[in-house]
Please model this.
Amino acid sequence: MEGRYANYFKVGHNAFEFLLDFGQFYADSQRAQLHTRIVTNPVYAKALFETLGASIKRYEETFWTIPAEDQAQGG
Model:
């Protein structure tokens, strides 16, 4: 399986599916370079949301509290 680094993402949806776009954004660039789109239905999007939330909770219990994005960037 190929792994791709992403520090940028967008989420969109319509009545039938969720679109998750991933890419890389660098300070010297005007826009993100998107490289991967995941399309899934609402049931699986919600399952992903719940699974990611549970994983973040376990991570923070084991390691440290992840700061909000604005705190991580000094804002």
Remarks:
- Helices lie at 42-62, 69-72.
- The longest strand covers residues 33-40.
